[in-house]
Amino acid sequence: MHKRKFMITLQNSSILLALCLLTGCATVDNYPVYVEAQKSLSRDATVAEAARIAALTEMVKSSDNEVKIQAIKALQEIQRSKRQVIIQQPKGMFGN
User: Fold this and answer.
1) Is the separation of the CB atoms in 57 and 65 below 8 Å?
2) What percent of the residues of the chain are helix, what percent strand, and what percent coil, each to the nearest 5?
3) What tens digit of pLDDT does each residue of 41-75 get?
4) Alpha-carbon gap, residue 89 to 27, rounded angstroms
5) Distance between CA atoms of 88 and 42, rounded to whole angstroms?
């Protein structure tokens, strides 16, 4: 449970950091900042998802059948709800 809480906090912090970085990216000159924020978000989401899957996989090994069932359901939900994290590209002064 501690690991999951840590990963959720890490993911939320990464999203907040990316949003803070992007608020100053209103010009095309800051495109490299946009790209780095996109990479950072993707990397953090991947790490968080891998930790979550690893924790659930360990739960599947449990001797308690209810724990196994819940872990399998959670893994199935992860598979069904995969989405890509996308940040809109910053626009220049004239909207281009």
Assistant:
1) no
2) 75, 0, 25
3) 889 988 998 999 999 999 999 999 999 999 999 99
4) 10
5) 14
